[in-house]
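Following up on my earlier thread - several people asked me to post the actual chain instead of describing it. Fair enough. Here it is, all 196 residues.
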Amino acid sequence: MRWVRVEGGMKKCKNCREPFTPRLPMQVACSPACALAMAVSKRGKEEKRALVLERKADKVKKEALKTKRDWIADAQKTFNLWVRMRDAGKPCICCGRQSNGEVYGGDFDAGHYRSRGSAPHLRFDERNVHAQLKQCNRFDAGNAVGYRMGLIARIGLEAVEALESDNAPKHYSIEDLKTLKAVYQVRINQMRRERA
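Reply from S.P.:
Thanks for posting it. Predicted structure:
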């Protein structure tokens, strides 16, 4: 902030912005109280800046310690959120019911037609994952028959059969997982902007 000279050799206090006559050539505050407030403010800013730098360094260290399993979990979390946002307003893929709004944390999971355990190469395949009521996904064993019928209605029989016959192994590197997470995060942000 630059000093503003006012008439008669007066300056404006950098803290309260009131005009004052300085007693010293480099004096920037009109009173000891204003000088103390400026010092506290400056120290607070420096501490905040140091804290931000420390957090950034911690984040870099934390990412360096992540295993491939950690990166898979991060990418899966972002992908699942995107699926739930993509299918928002649509009924459950397997039973056709809408959300009743009573389940804490949301009523829908990102349910996989072919499970991540039996077909890990399809865990990020958009055709394989759709919004599914938690009841169907967790307690009705995925409701595979209903899921298949709903999937045929959404993407067609040919695409479902292609999905069922897809057994080509896919191995994700850490860089692939980072890229997947970033791509789906961008899509999520776009959806949020569009809905706002």
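The chain is about 50% helix and 10% strand. That should answer part of your original question.
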